[in-house]
Amino acid sequence: MIEQLLSLPVVNQISTTISQRQKDELPVIVVSHPKVRAAVALQGAHLLAWQPEGQEPVLWMSSASAFKEGVAIRGGIPICWPWFGPAGKPSHGFARNMPWELTDHKENDQGVVLTLTLKSSEETLALWPHDFTLTARFTLGETCHIELESTGDFEANSALHTYFNIGDIADVSIKGLGGSFIDKVDGAKAKQETGDLTFSGQTDRIYTQPQATSEIIDPVLKRTLVIAHENNADVVAWNPGAQLSVSMADMPDDGYKTMVCVETAQVSHTHTSTHAAPARLAVTFSLRK
Ligand SMILES: O=P(O)(O)OC[C@H]1O[C@H](O)[C@H](O)[C@@H](O)[C@@H]1O
User: Fold this and answer.
1) Which of 7, 68, 169, 224 is most exposed, with the fewest beta carbons within 10 Å of its own?
2) Which residues span the domain enclosing 79?
3) Closest Cα to atom 4, ligand 1: which residue?
4) Dihedral over Cα of 216, 287, 38, 107: its sign
5) Phi, then psi, of 127 in degrees rounded to 5
6) Tell me, what CATH number does 57's domain have?
């Protein structure tokens, strides 16, 4: 993905390492820095790629995803806000389908910080009756830190819905999810299960008592992805499995084999935002050999 984006013409050279390019209908901010290559679409403040120097891509992107105005991107990190899933329309909230603004950028020897902002508008007020400012701050270097901050006067759900690039879904296991989950493929039943999560078909679970850190053990890519969650109630684990993958137009038929979503989420409870105390959801990714 990042090679493809870096081959697109530069629309605006923002700094030495940051440029704006155009992928079909969507403007994309591309980072090419000695320590890291990365890209974020202004629509949805959607991180499309984060690849530290010398590593395989960390985020999975669907080769069948559309890059169209108002259409959700399949892969990377959709920001779900102010609701999750089918709790409202559109699915996973409107923040992922709207154009955000790049409001700040910084860079140093270690990498780049990009800040994107979405504010309430007539269009959002028609969908959700609250004024808000939503800020997403991406600190991109050898590690990746993402912080989502919402200011206003409301309750909201949220998720950093990360699609990770893996060697093979049949071989990965996930640690640190805790034993209690809501099983969305079995009538949203509350269940208990100890041990690491492995995959043998469609899996869609909201873990409600996760540990602070989840780990994706990937024996094929010979690495462990470490996901340090901050200020989340839940972690969602999702893989569509073969059948659902075939039925999704924006996913290749075998797409499910090389991705897994491990989502830093605030789903089982809402976060409260006030003007004095914004709500905050954050995550840090790092890699271990
Ligand atoms: O197809 P989307 O709206 O992007 O949602 C993709 C998936 O997101 C989450 O992981 C949910 O738990 C799943 O139920 C949902 O299918």
Assistant:
1) 7
2) 2-288
3) 74
4) positive
5) -100, -25
6) 2.70.98.10
Ligand 1 atom closest to residue 74's alpha carbon, by position in its atom list: 4
**How does pLDDT run across 22-37, given as a tens digit for each residue?**
999 999 999 999 999 9
- Counted residue by residue, the chain has a size of 289
pTM for this entry = 0.98
- In this predicted complex, what is the ipTM? 0.98
237-254 in b/e burial notation, b at 16+ Cβ within 10 A?
bbbbbbeebeeeeebbee
Q: How many domains does the chain have?
A: 1
What is the rounded CA–CA span in Å between residue 239 and residue 242?
A: 9
pLDDT digits (tens, 9 = 90+) for 67-101: 999 999 999 999 999 999 999 999 999 999 999 99
The set of protein residues with a Cβ atom below 6 angstroms from ligand 1 is 72, 85, 91-92, 161, 184, 204, 236, 238, 261
- Which of 91, 157, 248 should be mutated for ligand 1, with most atoms under 8 A from CB? 91
